[in-house]
Amino acid sequence: MIRKTIAAVCCVTLVACTVGPDYKPPKPPTVSRYRSEQARAPIAEDQSLVEGRDVPAAWWALFRSEALDGLVRQALADSPKLAGAQAKLTRAQQDLAARRGATRYPKIDARVSATSVDVHPESFDVPALPIDTPFTLYDASVNVSYTLDLFGKTRRELEALQARTDHEGLELEGARLMLAGNVVTAAIRVAALRDQIEETEAVIAVQEKRLEIAGKLEQLGSMPRVDVVTQGAELARTRASLPPLRKRLEQTQHRLAVYLGKAPGDAELPELRLADLTLPEELPLTVPSELARRRPDIRAAEALLHEASAKVGVATANFYPQITLSGTAGSLATALSDLFSSGTGFYFIGATLVQKLFHGGELRAEKRAAVAAFDEATASYQDTVLTGLRDVADTLSALDTDAATLHERSEAARLAEEALTISSQRYDAGGVSYLALLDAQRQHRQAVLERTEAVADRYADSAALFQALGGGWWAEKPDEEAKK
What is the pTM of this model? Predict the structure, then answer.
């Protein structure tokens, strides 16, 4: 009988309908470019944009640094933030599995009980009972129940849980992308700060030498006091710029250590320098319509939209009746040895129908709330898409500016080096003073320092473009693609 009941349940379920809206993925962006004018390649000859090319999964390997690659991989393996995101995904997966198991199949529970019963014959106005009292009543039964999903409420609930699971998976990919980008950017800043500190110390050394010579010339009466004071003030300003650089270096190292899942005092960081990195010669640039399928945050927002759509179906299904089938089969005996003997069996089969008739407007309010939540998710998705487009546009503008800035600062450094060479030759020939030579050295060092800052900006913004485009998390073979 129980088998027939389960078969009937399956047949009814097959012909059931699903109320509420069927989810339709949003259309991709219709724009064909990221900026008001078509993005142009960076000005520098050593880097260009390649439109239509995907970002490799291990995009950080394009900087050709084993130390940087090791830092990113260590962070991806040991970061507690990723561990937390992975745990959230696992929890969502198990919630879905539990709900699927609880709704797709009948619930079958076994029960065995023993009850001591004492009956007084006089309470029934009989002299004696045909059984000795007190006695023990043994009961063994199997209960089967199943709630029919006639109008798709359960299917919509599972659809919503699946969308939530997809969201958590995409949140994990977004966390991986963000972590990799933060590690790369922090490592670039650490390398740049080390170079800047070294160049600043070199400038200070030159200024100290100039001030020493100026002091001697003042004593000889060949230099006015005001010039000596001016050079002293310039030296003090340069010295004052050094502690903030060291503070920024230490704080960036501490931040990098935390990204790696280490305490700041326990992390062993490589001595990275900008010279250890290689600027990617070609930067991929996917079309805007593909960006919505590439960025994890946009995909995660779409998953929430899907979940909100399914919950509208759940709220709609609450207006319809709910039918639960149940059955119990078992055995009842007064002796344990007779529990499974002939003549002690029984069974019950029943059905329960629940139709919500009056709930004070609760059901309609819940559906309106679900529709409003869907509208909110739609607006949030659209905002996330616009934010993604803006991130790419901003990064492309930054790359153009970086290239122009580096071009000018490189030219300034080249001219300062040429001036230093001329000053050195004139000094050897007795045409300029040693003080003038030191001033040429100072200007050259300052120009090199400014060029170092521009180089660091180009590296950081190149990494930002990979991140803005989604980081290539969908690639199947990240290592091979990154090394092409």
Answer: 0.82
